[in-house]
Amino acid sequence: MGQEISRSQFTPADFQRFYSRLIEETSLLARDAASGCFADRGYVVGFELEAWLLDHAGFPNPVNAALLERLADPLVVPELSCFNVELNGPPAPMRSGAIIAMENGLSHTWQQCQSAAHGMDTCLAMIGILPNIRLRDLTLANMSALKRYNVLNEQILAQRQGEPIHIHIEGRERLERSLPDVMLESATTSFQVHLQVPYSRAARYYNASLIACGPLLAMSGNSPVLFGKRLWHETRIPLFEQSVEAGGYAGLADAHIRRAGFGLGYVRENLIELFRENLDLYPVLLPMPLEASSARYPHVRLHNGAIWRWVRPLLGFDDAGQAHVRLEQRILPSGPSILDMIANAACYYGLCRALADTVDAPEARLPFAAARANFYQAARVGLAADLLWVDGERYSAADFWSRIGLPLAARGLSEFGLPDAEIARYLGVVEARVRTGQTGATWQLARLSAGEVSETAIAAMLADYLENQRSGAPVHEWST
Asked: What's the CATH fold of domain 12-477?
């Protein structure tokens, strides 16, 4: 959800005061990091799942406030729209049993949410983009009643000099739309996984996370349809980037800098480089003056939350007050099943660990431009993507996972201390998905007719999707 703010009206003086605090805290952050104040041991994992609330016809049901009141669960919080909620997993040490505990915890919270929703004639759904979403659903009337969202909308439009949001996606078909606000962002729901890492290893893990993005997205696509158009396997990627489109800021050397995207390059020495980028390149969107001590970097953290890198660095503090860094991997879609998502998370953790621990840094062998190209190619065509790897060879995404990705992920998970049975449970799901070629995206596309996609066909496909999801079976077992 991001950090809430206590007011929604700001003056130019508020922006200036915030920026002054941002300068001060960024300098303090750099000094603290250099002096060894950040935690430098241990790995911790967590997640955030964005889900849909649907009525019995399968359309968005904007009742999250009532559902959250009924649940009264701090792990379930609002999202941008009234028809989305976010389920959180508590942080846990990465060791034997961690991934199983993640699956069990999410399953428990999910069932609690479904039970509460059932009493409101509502159900929850996990899918990257709801294929039957309508423009009339995506209005400010359906924005959650949080000041943060209202201010973000106003400030993004202000940076665009009032120009509407323009969506242009070329995939199997072509989509163009113009909208007056950022509500299209609420059509993109994800499964975000977190990895807290030792500070001295954070740069290597950040770069490894970027390199892993292409392969991970290729085998996890679940967002192929929007407004009746078959677009990318992960249409959520261009849709999110364009729905909060702001950038090309006056006076900057690179007119293509955007608030949402893959980033500007690998980290060279440490993650502080990214927070300096935040200060130097991105205007403030949320100029809320905060009373917390500068030692907690409150303005740095609030500003960072309004810059949407696909791999985002986060700052936090443990119960004893020691600072730590964690990585938020934001590329994975919601759905198709809980088991699929946890398997995707396991692949991320294992592949990232194996790459970060390689003696010869893979970022020295794979140019950043290639990692970025892999990412967008994977978003477009999924397992058919042609990926350049760190060995200088090109592989189809399916071939990559069979020959390279799964063995690397298994090695990384083993280094985290996971036993063979736990590794086999989750990587086996991905192996079967890759072998059958059936991701959430390919399943959805196969269930739609070869001709024009009708509302009736989408409704039937979605009904079958939700039935399969309720079964708990991973997507490679779903019949078409």
From this structure: Creatine Kinase; Chain A, domain 2 (3.30.590)
